[in-house]
C-alpha cells in the first residue's frame, strides 16, 4: 500500500504561492496584505474488534489572504492554489475591503517585530508508516485493551494517525517564512460493563512530533482499558461544597479558561472577568505560568505567530500576579499596548509543577472530589461563572473510595484561581497547555 | 434531468472537463470483486461572512472550497481518499487508494444510473446574490442601532452575518445519482450590558435557514434578534446565583429542545447502535419515555437549517419517528449502518465536506406538542427552575450522561416565575430523563435556526424543537446548595 506522506511538502512551493497572492493583492489595489498557505497530507486508520474499520488518506491545502486598503480590511481563502484562483481570492478580499469601515487599529503587525532568524525547533519528523504497519500497531493497541479484563466488553477501536504539513506566512513588509511539522498519534477507546450496571467508556491517547516519542501501543490500550474499568459502579453524590482535584488532562481546561480571559479580544471588548487585572494577584503567590514557544519537538512550538511576529519565552503569571496578556497586533493597538506574538494562539503554556504526584495531592485534599472527565460548555468568560458536567472519584482520607458520575462542579473562575492550593508534578505534555493535577478549594458539587 | 443536477454538472463536472464516461471509469474501480461498492461526492461551496463591532463593519471574508471524496466499502470496512483537484487523474488516484480497503485488484461493472428525485424544500439560490453588499452592510448597521436603542446599559454589540452557497453531487456504485443546491444563511447578535457598578453580562440571539438574506428582513426578524439579545443581557444583569441540586425543571419551547438532541438524539444514531456502544442499543420496542412523548427527526421541513433535499449519500430525507408515545421506534441511519443491520434508510447520512466520511447525523429533531397550557405547567411547580435559553450541550452516548447549559433561567416559587438566576449546567441520564417528563405543553416551537452539531470532529447544521416540558428531577449545577 502507498506511503502516508507525499513528497510534495516543499515550503518553497508554498512560498511562491504566498508571494503570488500578495502580488495579486497589490495589483488589486491593496496598500498592504498578508497571506498564509498550508499543505498537509496524512493517513488515519481505525481498527475495531481486530478488523480494519476505516482507512483514510488525507490531503489538504489552502491559502488565506487579508488585504488592507488604507485602514479597511478584507479577507478571502481558497483550497485551490492555481494562479487564477489566487487572483480570484485576492480580488474577492479587495472587493470586501471596499465595504468594510476604516478602523485605525487595522493593519499588519509592525515591521520591526517580524521574526528574523529563528531556531530549528525540531518539529519535522516524517514517519513514513505504511497503511499495513499503521493497522498492525492499532491492532496491537486495541488487542491489549480488550485482553486486559473480561469486563472490557466492546470497543470503539484504536486509531493511528500520521500527518505532515507545511505552512508559510508572508506579508508586504517583506516577511516570508515557513516550516514543516509532523504530528503522529495513537488512541484507543473501549467499553467496560459488569453485571446489570450500565456501560462505561473511556480512552487514552498518545501524540508526538516524532513517532519514537509515542507511548508503546499496548501500553496505550491497557491504560484505556483501566480507565474504563475504574469507572464501573459509578454513583451520584449528594449536593455539597468540597475541594476538587482536577486530573492533568482535565486541569488543562481550567488553565485554558484563564488564557481565554487574558486574550486581547476578550479584553478590548470588556468581555473578560480579568479585565484590568494586569499587575494584580489572580492566583496564589506560588503560581508561575509562562509560555515556552521554542521547546524542541513540543506540540505548541512555533518560531513566529500568525502575523510573522517573533515568538519569545514570556511570563503570564509571576508570583501569582497577572504579568502578561495574550495579544495580537489588532487587540494590542486597541489596548494601547504591543503585540505579544499570540496571533493564532499560545505556545506551550506551562504552569510550574509542584512536588507531589497525584496520590500526594489526594492525600493533601483528604476528603473531596477527583475529577477525571468534564463535559459541556458551561463557562462564561464575561463573568467567570463556571458550571460543568463531571465524572470522577470520591476521595476520603486521601484514598479513592468510589467512582462518581452525573454530577456538576460549579464556582466562579476568579475564586477558583485564587483557591488553587497545589499543582501536581504529574504534568501532561500532550498539548499546548502543560499542567499537572490542580487542587482547588471550595467548589460546589451538585448531585442528588 | 433535475435542475439541481444540471447546476451540479455545470459547477462540478464541466470546469474539470469530466464526462459521464469518466465517472463510470472511476466508479468501476470501486465495483471490484471484494468490494461492496462505494461513492463519489463532489462538492463546491463558497461562503462569505461579515462582522460589525464597535458600530463599524470591521471584517469581511470570502472563501471558496471545492473537491471530491471517494469512498470504497467492503463489509464494515471503509476506504477513503479525497482531493481538492476535481480532475480525472486525481479521481483515479483517490479511487485506487480508497479501494485498497478491499484488497481488490481488478475493476468491476457499474450499475445503470438511477436519478434520485430530490425534495424541493428550499430554493436553489445563491444567498450572496440576494442582497447587494450595501444592503448587507445596512442590515448589520440597523441591528447595531436597534440593540443600542433598547437600553443605555448596552456597552458592546457584535453582529455577524454569513451566507453559504453549496452544490453537491453524489454517485453511488448502485447507480444512485443525486444532486442538491443548498443555500444557508445565519445572522447573530451578541451584546454586553454594564450596570454602572462594574457588573457585566452578555446576551445573544440569532437565526437563519436555507434561504436568501431577505429572510432577515422579512417580518423584521433581524431586528428581533437585536431586541432579544439585549433583553437576555438585561435579565442576566439581575440574575442571582443559580441553585445546586436535583429539582423539577420546566424547559421552555424551541431551542431548549437541545435536551432531546443530547439526551436521546445522539444515542439513536445507527452507527453507535450497530456497534452496541449506545445506552439505547438493542432497545427498540422498549419504553424509554413517558406516555405522551413522541420525538421525531425530520429533514423534510421547508427552509429549515437542518433540512436537506437529499442527504450526503443521495438518499431523500425523511420524517423519522424515533420515540412514539414513549416507546423507542427507530434509529437514524446512513447507508453503511442500514445495510449492516438490515434497517431501512432514513436519509441521515451526512458529512461536513468532501474531505470527511459520512455517518448517521440528525437533521431537525423535535418533540411533538402535548395537551398542556404552558401557564398550567409552570403553575404546577411549587419549587424549581424554569430554563428558557441554552448554550450548547454534550453527551456521553455510552453512559448516557448528558449536559446542556442554561443561559437564561428563573426560579419557580409557589407556581410563579420569580427571580432570574445565573447560567448553570444541567446534567441528566439520557435513557431515563424522558421517563420523568410529566407534562408536555401545547406550544411546540422549533429553534430560530442556530444549531451546529459536532460529532467525531465534523460539524453540520441542525435544528431542534420542543414544546414547554416539565421534567421531574434534573440536576441543576448552580452554586447555591
TrEMBL record, chain A:
The domain of life for this entry's organism is Bacteria
User: Which GO-annotated molecular functions does the record name?
Assistant: metallopeptidase activity
GO BP term, example: proteolysis
- Which segments constitute the Metalloprotease TldD/E C-terminal domain? 239-447
Please report a single Pfam family linked to this protein.
PmbA_TldD_3rd
Q: Which residues form the Metalloprotease TldD/E central domain?
A: 124-232
Domain Metalloprotease TldD/E N-terminal: start-end pairs: 33-97
**Gene Ontology CC entries for this record:** cytosol
* Family annotation (InterPro entries): Metalloprtase-TldD/E_C, Metalloprtase-TldD/E_cen_dom, Metalloprtase-TldD/E_N, PmbA, TldD/PmbA_N, TldD/PmbA_sf
Q: Which family does the similarity line name?
A: Belongs to the peptidase U62 family.
What is the protein named? PmbA protein
Q: Which organism is it from?
A: Ectothiorhodospira mobilis
UniProtKB/TrEMBL annotation, chain B:
UniProt xrefs under Pfam families: PmbA_TldD_1st, PmbA_TldD_2nd, PmbA_TldD_3rd
Which PANTHER family would you find in this protein's record?
Answer: METALLOPROTEASE TLDD, UNCHARACTERIZED PROTEIN TLDD AND PMBA
Which top-rank group of organisms is this from?
A: Bacteria
Query: What name has this protein been given in UniProt?
Result: TldD protein
One Gene Ontology biological process: proteolysis
The species is Ectothiorhodospira mobilis
SUPFAM superfamilies (alphabetical): Putative modulator of DNA gyrase, PmbA/TldD
Swiss-Prot/TrEMBL keywords: Hydrolase, Metalloprotease, Protease
Q: Where is the Metalloprotease TldD/E central domain?
A: 127-237
Q: Give an example GO molecular function.
A: metallopeptidase activity
Q: Can you tell me which residues the record assigns to a coiled coil?
A: none
Q: Name one GO cellular component term.
A: cytosol
Q: Which family does it belong to?
A: Belongs to the peptidase U62 family.
| Domain Metalloprotease TldD/E C-terminal per the UniProt entry, residue ranges | 245-478
Q: Where is the Metalloprotease TldD/E N-terminal domain?
A: 39-101
Amino acid at each position: 500500500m502507498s506511503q502516508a506522506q507525499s513528497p510534495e511538502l516543499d515550503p518553497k512551493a508554498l512560498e511562491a504561492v504566498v508571494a503570488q497572492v500578495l502580488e495579486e493583492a497589490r495589483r488589486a489595489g491593496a496598500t498592504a496584505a498578508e497571506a498564509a498557505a498550508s499543505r498537509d497530507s496524512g493517513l488515519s486508520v481505525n481498527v475495531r474488534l481486530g478488523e480494519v474499520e476505516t482507512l483514510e488518506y488525507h490531503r489538504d491545502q489552502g491559502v488565506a489572504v487579508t488585504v488592507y486598503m488604507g485602514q479597511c480590511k478584507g479577507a478571502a481563502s481558497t483550497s485551490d492554489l492555481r494562479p487564477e484562483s489566487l487572483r480570484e481570492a485576492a480580488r474577492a478580499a479587495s472587493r470586501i475591503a471596499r465595504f468594510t469601515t476604516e478602523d485605525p487599529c487595522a493593519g499588519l503587525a509592525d515591521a520591526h517585530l517580524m521574526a528574523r532568524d529563528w531556531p530549528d525547533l525540531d518539529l519535522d519528523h516524517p514517519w513514513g508508516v505504511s497503511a499495513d504497519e499503521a493497522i498492525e500497531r492499532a491492532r496491537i493497541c486495541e488487542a491489549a485493551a480488550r485482553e486486559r479484563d473480561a469486563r472490557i466488553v466492546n470497543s470503539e477501536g484504536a486509531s493511528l494517525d500520521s500527518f505532515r504539513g507545511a505552512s508559510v506566512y508572508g506579508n508586504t513588509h517583506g516577511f516570508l517564512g515557513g516550516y514543516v511539522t509532523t504530528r503522529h498519534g495513537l488512541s484507543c477507546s473501549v467499553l467496560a460493563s459488569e453485571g446489570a450496571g450500565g456501560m462505561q467508556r473511556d480512552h487514552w491517547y498518545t501524540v508526538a512530533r516524532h513517532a519514537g516519542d509515542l507511548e508503546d501501543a499496548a501500553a496505550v490500550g491497557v491504560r484505556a482499558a483501566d480507565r474504563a474499568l475504574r469507572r464501573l459502579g459509578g454513583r451520584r453524590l449528594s449536593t455539597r461544597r468540597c475541594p476538587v482535584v482536577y486530573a492533568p488532562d482535565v486541569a488543562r481546561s481550567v488553565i485554558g479558561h484563564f488564557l481565554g480571559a487574558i486574550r486581547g479580544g476578550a479584553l478590548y471588548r470588556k468581555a473578560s472577568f480579568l479585565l484590568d487585572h494586569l499587575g494584580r494577584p489572580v492566583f496564589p503567590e506560588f503560581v508561575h505560568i509562562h509560555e515556552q514557544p521554542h521547546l524542541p519537538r513540543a506540540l505548541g512550538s512555533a518560531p513566529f505567530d500568525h502575523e510573522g511576529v517573533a515568538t519569545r519565552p514570556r511570563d503570564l503569571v509571576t508570583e501569582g500576579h497577572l504579568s502578561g496578556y495574550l495579544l495580537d497586533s489588532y487587540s494590542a493597538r486597541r489596548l494601547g499596548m504591543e503585540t505579544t506574538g499570540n496571533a493564532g494562539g499560545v505556545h506551550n503554556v506551562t504552569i510550574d509543577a509542584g512536588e507531589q504526584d497525584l496520590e500526594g495531592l489526594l492525600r493533601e485534599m483528604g476528603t473531596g472530589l477527583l475529577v477525571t472527565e468534564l463535559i459541556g460548555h458551561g463557562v462564561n468568560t464575561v463573568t467567570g461563572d463556571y458550571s460543568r458536567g463531571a465524572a470522577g472519584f470520591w476521595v476520603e482520607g486521601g484514598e479513592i473510595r468510589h467512582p462518581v458520575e452525573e454530577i456538576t462542579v460549579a464556582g466562579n473562575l476568579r475564586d477558583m484561581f485564587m483557591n488553587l492550593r497545589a499543582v501536581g508534578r504529574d504534568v501532561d505534555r500532550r498539548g499546548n497547555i502543560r499542567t499537572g493535577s490542580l487542587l482547588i478549594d471550595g467548589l460546589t458539587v451538585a448531585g442528588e | 434531468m433535475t435542475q439541481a443536477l444540471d447546476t451540479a454538472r455545470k459547477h462540478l463536472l464541466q470546469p474539470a472537463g469530466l464526462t459521464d464516461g469518466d465517472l463510470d471509469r472511476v466508479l468501476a474501480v470501486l465495483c471490484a470483486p471484494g468490494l461492496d461498492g462505494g461513492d463519489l461526492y463532489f462538492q463546491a461551496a463558497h461562503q462569505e461572512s461579515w462582522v460589525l463591532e464597535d458600530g463599524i463593519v470591521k471584517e469581511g471574508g470570502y472563501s471558496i472550497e471545492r473537491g471530491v471524496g471517494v469512498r470504497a466499502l467492503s463489509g464494515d470496512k471503509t476506504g477513503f481518499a479525497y482531493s481538492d483537484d476535481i480532475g480525472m487523474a486525481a479521481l483515479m488516484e483517490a479511487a485506487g487508494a480508497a479501494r485498497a480497503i478491499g484488497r481488490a485488484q481488478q475493476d468491476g461493472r457499474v450499475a445503470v444510473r438511477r436519478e434520485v428525485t430530490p425534495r424541493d424544500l428550499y430554493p436553489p439560490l445563491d444567498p450572496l446574490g440576494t442582497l447587494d453588499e450595501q444592503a448587507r452592510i445596512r442590515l448589520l448597521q440597523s441591528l447595531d442601532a436597534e440593540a443600542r436603542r433598547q437600553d443605555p446599559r448596552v456597552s458592546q454589540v457584535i453582529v455577524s452575518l454569513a451566507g453559504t452557497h453549496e452544490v453537491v453531487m453524489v454517485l453511488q456504485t448502485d447507480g444512485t445519482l443525486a444532486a442538491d443546491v443548498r443555500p444557508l444563511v445565519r445572522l447573530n447578535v451578541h451584546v454586553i450590558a454594564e450596570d454602572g457598578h462594574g457588573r457585566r453580562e452578555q446576551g445573544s440571539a440569532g437565526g437563519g435557514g436555507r434561504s436568501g438574506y431577505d429572510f432577515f428582513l422579512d417580518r423584521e426578524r433581524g431586528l428581533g434578534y437585536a431586541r432579544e439579545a439585549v433583553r437576555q443581557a438585561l435579565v442576566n444583569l439581575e440574575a442571582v446565583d443559580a441553585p445546586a441540586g436535583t429539582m423539577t425543571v420546566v424547559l421552555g419551547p424551541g431551542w431548549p429542545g437541545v435536551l432531546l438532541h443530547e439526551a436521546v438524539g445522539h444515542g439513536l444514531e445507527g452507527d453507535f447502535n450497530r456497534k452496541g456502544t449506545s445506552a439505547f442499543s438493542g432497545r427498540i420496542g422498549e419504553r424509554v419515555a413517558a406516555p405522551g412523548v413522541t420525538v421525531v427527526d425530520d429533514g423534510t421541513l421547508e427552509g429549515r437549517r437542518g433540512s436537506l433535499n437529499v442527504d450526503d449519500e443521495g438518499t431523500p430525507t425523511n420524517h423519522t419517528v424515533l420515540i412514539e408515545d414513549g416507546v423507542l421506534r427507530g434509529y437514524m441511519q446512513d447507508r453503511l449502518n442500514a445495510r449492516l443491520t438490515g434497517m431501512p434508510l432514513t436519509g441521515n447520512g451526512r458529512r461536513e465536506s468532501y474531505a470527511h466520511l459520512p455517518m448517521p447525523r440528525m437533521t431537525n429533531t423535535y418533540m411533538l406538542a402535548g395537551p398542556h397550557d404552558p401557564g398550567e405547567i409552570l403553575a404546577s411547580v411549587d419549587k424549581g427552575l424554569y430554563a428558557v435559553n441554552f448554550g450548547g450541550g454534550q453527551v456521553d452516548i455510552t453512559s448516557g450522561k448528558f449536559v446542556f447549559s442554561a443561559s437564561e433561567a428563573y426560579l419557580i416559587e409557589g407556581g410563579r416565575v420569580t427571580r432570574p438566576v445565573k447560567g448553570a449546567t444541567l446534567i441528566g441520564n439520557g435513557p431515563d430523563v424522558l421517563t420523568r417528563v410529566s407534562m408536555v405543553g401545547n406550544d411546540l416551537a422549533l429553534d430560530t435556526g442556530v444549531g451546529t452539531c459536532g460529532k467525531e470532529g465534523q460539524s453540520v447544521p441542525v435544528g431542534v424543537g420542543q414544546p414547554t416540558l416539565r421534567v421531574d428531577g434534573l440536576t441543576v449545577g448552580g452554586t447555591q446548595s
